[in-house]
Design brief:
The chain is of the alpha/beta class and about 290 residues long. The protein folds into 2 domains: about 90 residues, no CATH class; about 180 residues, Vaccinia Virus protein VP39 (Rossmann fold). About 40% of the residues lie in helices and about 15% in strands. α1 packs across α2 and α3 crosses α4. The two termini are about 40 Å apart.
Length: about 290
């Protein structure tokens, strides 16, 4: 996001460099996030040179404050020091401008917690040039939560079409209503091709609506785990994910709660082969492709 990335550091690396605890860095990131890059509060966020300068300024002021000063008062004193520091003000102004860019606002709109979801899906970017259509299994929309996953996949991969499938008619209804509202309120949402289908992926009822070899990516996250007590249904669900993708394309299941030996066997039973191109995939992400 920043125009001054330079060397990237983790919070642990910054803490070690400044001689403070990781708890201090996390506390400062939460309190002074308007001076820092997007998603600064995430523990795994990589910080650029501007972020490091801000942490350094905070640490310098913090070290000048007497140890017996209460935390709340200490934070107020640090904040005043930042407000009067031209470098900090300059960085804060730039950060504010970056966080208000349309693509960042777009991410925040679909996030229930207001967190920029883009960072959670960057590991998929190596597939960007070869994925145009996506079948996204599972939808958790309700009165409060948006169905954010299809948007994250759509934007991360620069795809043009996402079909969301869920057996819960109410979830699909909420997801559709939310999209209608978003399209009326946010111009960015008018151009996205999203479709919603009510259907059970464990049963033979989607063939009329989801054609074989129709997608470049079949994706699910924390969906298959709900079928753990139905081994036949779980296998059928994976068969369905494999059926709809084109030969040579991808089936990705992010299912950290399912034992590795079980899910890998089921994926192989569906005629899928492990794909090693996504080297930054998180733990519990199973990346396979359909045999050509």
């Amino acid at each position: 996001m920043s125009s001054n990335q330079g060397k990237l550091r983790t919070k642990s690396e910054i803490a070690k460099c400044l001689g403070v605890s990781i708890d201090d860095i996390c506390r400062w990131a939460n309190r002074f996030d308007d001076y820092l890059d997007v998603c600064a509060t995430r523990i795994d966020k990589m910080h650029d040179e501007d972020d490091f300068r801000v942490f350094t300024l905070i640490n310098e002021r913090n070290s000048q404050i007497e140890e017996n000063v209460p935390l709340i008062e200490r934070m107020d004193l640090i904040e005043r020091a930042l407000h009067s520091c031209p470098l900090a003000v300059s960085i804060r102004t730039r950060r504010y401008r970056e966080k208000k860019r349309p693509e960042v606002e777009r991410w925040q709109v679909v996030s229930t917690l207001g967190i920029c979801l883009g960072y959670e899906y960057e590991w998929l970017k190596p597939l960007q040039s070869s994925v145009d259509s996506i079948a996204d299994f599972g939808c958790w929309a309700d009165e409060i939560r948006t169905c954010s996953e299809p948007y994250a996949l759509l934007w991360t991969l620069n795809a043009t079409r996402v079909v969301v499938i869920d057996k819960n008619r109410e979830h699909i209804w909420y997801a559709q209503k939310w999209l209608e509202t978003a399209r009326a309120k946010y111009p960015d949402f008018k151009d996205y091709n999203l479709e919603f289908i009510v259907g059970d992926m464990t049963k033979d009822e989607l063939k009329d609506e989801l054609h074989e070899c129709d997608f470049d990516l079949s994706y699910c996250q924390d969906v298959l785990y709900n079928m753990k007590d139905n081994s036949k249904g779980l296998q059928n669900a994976i068969y369905e994910m494999a059926r709809v993708v084109k030969p040579g394309r991808w089936v990705i299941a992010v299912e950290p709660k399912i034992p590795r030996d079980i899910i890998t066997q089921l994926l192989e039973n569906a005629g899928l082969i492990r794909d090693s191109r996504l080297k930054d995939a998180p733990d519990g992400a199973y990346c396979y492709s359909r045999q050509p």
